[in-house]
Inverse folding.
C-alpha cells in the first residue's frame, strides 16, 4: 500500500515537473491523480497566439471594424436625410457599415478559434483620431470613406507582417487575413478611389455641380 | 524696388496655386423647403435618438456574449450563434429607428451625437444560463425604454408643444413591441428548459442544450 502511494506521489511530482513544458496531457495526468490540479494548458493557443501581443493587435483590429461600422452608419444616415437625399450614397455607406460589422463578428470568432478572448476596449491610438464631422458633402464623404478603408487595409498588413516577418511565424493567421480581408480591401479601395475620381472630374470646373451629383447618385443607387 | 518685386512674385505665386488647384464647388446651396410637415416634437425626438444608443448597447452586449461562448475553453457554439444573431438583430433595430427618424424629416443635424461608442454591459458569464438570464433582463430593459418613448410621444405637452404622435406610437407598439414580447417569451422558455436540467445534470444539460441551439431547433 505504501509502495503504491509512494509511486503515485513520485509520478505526480514528476508530472508537476513536466508542467513547465506546458502540455495539456501532463495537466490531465496531474488532474486525474489523487492530488488533482488545473488543466490550464488544455487550450487552442499555439503559434503567434501563445503570447498576448498578437492577440491585442487582433482585438484592436476587431474594435476598429466596430468603430468604422458605426461611423459608416452615421454617414449613411446623413445622406438619407431629406436635405441631402442621396439614396446612392446612403446605400453605399450602409453596405460598408454592414460589411465592417460582419467582419468584426468574424474576427471575434477567429480570436475564439485561436484560444484568445475579446477585449472591446483594446483599441489603437483612439485618442489621436480627430472627431469626425459627419455633416459631409458628397465628394468629401467619398474621400473620407476611402481613407477609412485604407486604414483598415494597413492594419491588416501590419498584423500580417507580425506573423510572417517580425514575430513568430504563423501561416494560419496570415492566410486567414489574406482570404477574408486583404483581397476584399483592395476591391473596395479600388472602387472608392474610382468613385472619388469620377466625382472629382464630374464636378470640376463647374459653377453648379448639382446635376452631376444627382446623376452620379442615381448611378450609385442602381449599380449597388 | 526690391519690395515691389517681392510683392509681384508673391502675387504671381498666389495666382498660380489658385489655377493649379482648380477650385471646385463641392457644396450645394441650401434649398428652402417648407418645414410644416416636420411634426415630431422635441422630447419625443430626443427619446427616439436615445433609443438608437440603447439598441446598440444591447447589440454590443450580445456581441460580447457571442465572443464569450466562442472561446475554446468555453466551447458553446450554439449559444455563441444565437447571441451573435441577436447582436445583428439589435443593430437592425437601431437602423430601423434611424430610418423612421429620417422618414419623419429628422436627423438633419448633430448626427455624430446619435452613436456614442456603445460598449457591452458585461464581458464574461459564469455559464449559459446566466447569459440567458442577462439577455432576458436586457430585453426587458429595452422594452421598458420603448414603452417610455410611447408614453412621452403620446403627450409631449411640455414647452407649449402639444402633439400626440399617433403614427410613431402605433409603429412602436405594432412593430417593435411585438418583437420584444415574442423575444422575451422565447428567452424565458429557454431559461426554463435549461434551468430544469441544470438542477441534476449541470454540465451535460448545457452541453446538449448548446447542440440544440446550434442546429437551430426551437428549445
Amino acid at each position: 500500500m505504501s509502495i503504491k502511494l509512494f509511486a503515485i506521489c513520485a509520478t505526480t511530482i514528476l508530472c508537476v515537473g513536466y508542467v513547465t513544458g506546458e502540455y495539456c496531457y501532463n495537466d490531465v495526468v496531474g488532474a486525474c491523480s489523487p492530488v488533482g490540479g488545473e488543466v490550464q494548458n488544455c487550450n487552442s493557443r499555439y503559434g503567434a497566439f501563445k503570447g498576448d501581443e498578437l492577440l491585442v493587435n487582433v482585438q484592436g483590429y476587431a474594435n476598429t471594424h466596430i468603430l468604422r461600422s458605426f461611423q459608416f452608419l452615421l454617414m449613411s444616415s446623413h445622406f438619407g436625410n431629406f436635405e441631402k437625399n442621396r439614396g446612392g450614397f446612403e446605400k453605399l455607406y450602409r453596405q460598408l457599415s454592414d460589411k465592417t460589422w460582419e467582419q468584426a463578428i468574424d474576427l471575434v470568432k477567429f480570436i475564439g478559434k485561436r484560444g484568445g478572448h475579446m477585449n472591446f476596449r483594446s483599441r489603437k491610438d483612439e485618442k489621436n483620431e480627430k472627431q469626425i464631422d459627419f455633416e459631409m458633402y458628397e465628394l468629401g464623404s467619398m474621400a473620407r470613406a476611402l481613407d477609412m478603408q485604407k486604414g483598415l487595409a494597413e492594419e491588416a498588413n501590419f498584423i500580417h507582417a507580425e506573423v510572417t516577418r517580425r514575430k513568430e511565424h504563423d501561416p494560419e493567421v496570415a492566410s486567414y487575413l489574406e482570404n477574408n480581408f486583404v483581397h476584399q480591401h483592395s476591391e473596395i479601395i479600388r472602387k472608392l478611389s474610382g468613385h472619388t475620381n469620377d466625382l472629382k472630374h464630374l464636378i470640376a470646373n463647374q459653377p453648379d455641380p448639382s446635376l452631376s451629383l444627382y446623376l452620379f447618385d442615381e448611378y450609385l443607387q442602381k449599380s449597388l | 524696388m526690391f519690395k515691389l518685386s517681392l510683392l509681384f512674385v508673391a502675387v504671381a505665386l498666389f495666382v498660380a496655386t489658385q489655377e493649379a488647384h482648380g477650385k471646385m464647388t463641392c457644396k450645394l446651396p441650401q434649398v428652402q423647403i417648407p418645414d410644416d410637415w416636420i411634426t415630431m416634437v422635441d422630447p419625443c425626438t430626443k427619446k427616439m435618438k436615445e433609443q438608437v444608443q440603447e439598441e446598440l448597447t444591447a447589440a454590443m452586449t450580445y456581441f460580447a456574449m457571442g465572443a464569450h461562448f466562442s472561446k475554446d475553453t468555453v466551447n458553446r457554439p450554439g449559444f455563441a450563434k444565437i447571441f451573435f444573431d441577436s447582436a445583428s438583430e439589435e443593430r437592425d433595430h437601431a437602423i430601423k429607428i434611424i430610418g423612421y427618424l429620417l422618414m419623419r424629416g429628422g436627423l438633419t443635424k448633430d448626427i455624430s451625437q446619435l452613436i456614442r461608442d456603445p460598449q457591452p454591459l458585461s464581458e464574461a458569464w459564469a455559464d449559459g444560463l446566466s447569459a440567458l438570464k442577462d439577455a432576458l433582463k436586457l430585453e426587458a430593459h429595452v422594452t421598458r425604454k420603448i414603452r417610455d418613448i410611447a408614453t412621452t410621444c403620446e403627450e409631449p405637452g411640455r414647452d407649449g408643444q402639444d402633439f400626440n404622435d399617433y403614427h410613431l406610437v402605433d409603429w412602436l407598439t405594432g412593430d417593435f413591441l411585438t418583437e420584444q414580447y415574442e423575444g422575451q417569451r422565447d428567452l424565458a422558455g429557454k431559461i426554463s428548459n435549461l434551468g430544469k436540467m441544470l438542477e441534476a445534470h449541470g454540465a451535460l444539460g448545457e452541453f446538449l442544450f448548446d447542440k440544440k441551439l446550434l442546429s437551430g431547433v426551437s428549445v
Residues 182 and 188 of chain B are 10 Å apart (CA to CA). Confidence is low (pLDDT under 50) at residues 15-20 of chain B. Chain B touches chain A at residues 22, 24-28, 30-31, 33, 56, 60, 63-64, 66-68, 70-73, 80, 84, 87-88, 91, 95, 98-99, 102, 105-109, 111-112, 114-115, 117-120, 123 (CB under 8 Å).
